[in-house]
Amino acid sequence: MRTLSAMLLGLAGVFGAFTSHAAHAQGFELSSPDIASGSIIKQAHAFNGFGCTGQNTSPATTWRNPPAGTRSFAVMVHDPDAPTGGAGFWHWVVVDIPATAAALPRGVGTSDGRELPGGARQIATDFGTPGWGGPCPPVGDKPHRYVFTVYALKVDRLELPANATASLAGFVVNANALGQASFSALYGR
């Protein structure tokens, strides 16, 4: 059994490696023609259910300048302000996006994922199903932050089981990341 100090040294190495990978990706950028960084997310992208009346259409995302050696991408959208006891809420998880892709077009986040780039797949969100699940924070909460992140990965495909959770996917994505780029937007009701 490993000692606590050995585990902490191992973690320090992982974080150090991640920091050095992130430094190589300084030019890596993520944006959306549908959602400006720091803006309010439109009803077109809000969830339709749980009292929300949006159209639940996934926004387009585009990225550029991935780090050298990128073999695939993952896109994840997270609400860190969700009242879940600290875990936040996963709204979209797309993995195994081919390295030749530089965007996810508007509307590709349907539950069947049929319009995703070849080989890409979606992991179930915290709504319990794969595909885009738009913002739907509790009534009266201050507007929540929605963090959109694209990860450049060092592997072609992630070894995730078919029933992987969003948190497991996030763990494996981060373990294989060469770099990442993010922006945030807001939504409240």
Account of the protein in words:
With 189 residues, the chain is an alpha+beta fold. It has one domain (4-187): Phosphatidylethanolamine-binding Protein. Helices cover 16% and strands 29% of the residues. The protein contains two helices and ten strands. It has helices at residues 4-24, 166-175; strands at residues 29-31, 48-49, 52-53, 61-64, 72-79, 89-98, 103-104, 121-122, 144-153, 177-187. It has a five-stranded antiparallel β-sheet. Strands 1-4-7 form a three-stranded antiparallel β-sheet, with no helix packed on it. Strand 2 (48-49) and strand 3 form a beta hairpin. The N and C termini lie far apart (50 Å).
Topology:
Elements: H1 4-24, E1 29-31, E2 48-49, E3 52-53, E4 61-64, E5 72-79, E6 89-98, E7 103-104, E8 121-122, E9 144-153, H2 166-175, E10 177-187
Antiparallel strand pairs: 1-4, 2-3, 4-7, 5-6, 5-9, 6-8, 9-10
Look at the structure and name the CATH superfamily: PEBP-like
Give the total of beta strands: 10
Q: Quick one: overall form?
A: globular
- Write the CATH fold name: Phosphatidylethanolamine-binding Protein
Largest sheet data: 5 strands, antiparallel
Q: What count of structural domains? A: 1
Class inferred from helices and paired strands: alpha+beta
Give me the side-by-side strand order of the main sheet: 8-6-5-9-10
Instruction: Classify the helix fraction into a percent range.
Output: 10-25%
Rg on CA atoms, Å: 17 Å
Judging by the overall fold, what is the CATH architecture? Alpha-Beta Complex
Name of the CATH class: Alpha Beta
Distance between the termini: 50 Å
Mean pLDDT: 89
Query: Uncertain spans, ≥5 residues at pLDDT below 50?
Result: 1-25
Query: How much beta, percentage-wise?
Result: 25-35%
User: How many H/I helical runs?
Assistant: 2
Order of helices and strands: HEEEEEEEEEHE
